[in-house]
Amino acid sequence: MAKFMVSCTHAKDNTDKATVAFVVANASVASGQDTVVFLSIEGVRLATPGYADDIHEEGFAPLKELMTNYIAAGGQIWLCSPCFKKRGLNENTLTGNTTIVGGAKVVEFLTTGGTSICY
After folding, report:
1. Which domains does the chain have, with CATH numbers?
2. Three-state secondary structure call for residue 24
C-alpha cells in the first residue's frame, strides 16, 4: 500500500482548493492507499464541526459530504499544531479521525515512502 498525503492550506479563503483537496483525498483512500489530509494555515479551520457545512463549489459535492465520506472510508486528518494553536481553536471539538500533529510527524510520513500534493 502506498502512502499519500494531501496538504491543504485553505478553507473559506479559497473554497475551490479546499474542496479539490478532499476530492483527491477521497480518490486516494478509495483506491486503498494509506491517505492523510494534512491541514495547515487556514485549512485547520475545516476540522471544526460546522465550519465546512456551507462550502459547496459548483461542479463538486459539498465539502461537508466529501469530508464525511473521506473519514468514513478510513482517511486520516492531521492538523498542524502551531497553526491550530495560533487560531485559538478548541481541540475538544474536532471532526472525526482528526489528530493534532507537529512537523516531525509529517516529515516521518514523507521520508518513509509518502508522496504529497498541496492545495
Report:
1. 3-118 (3.40.1260.10)
2. helix
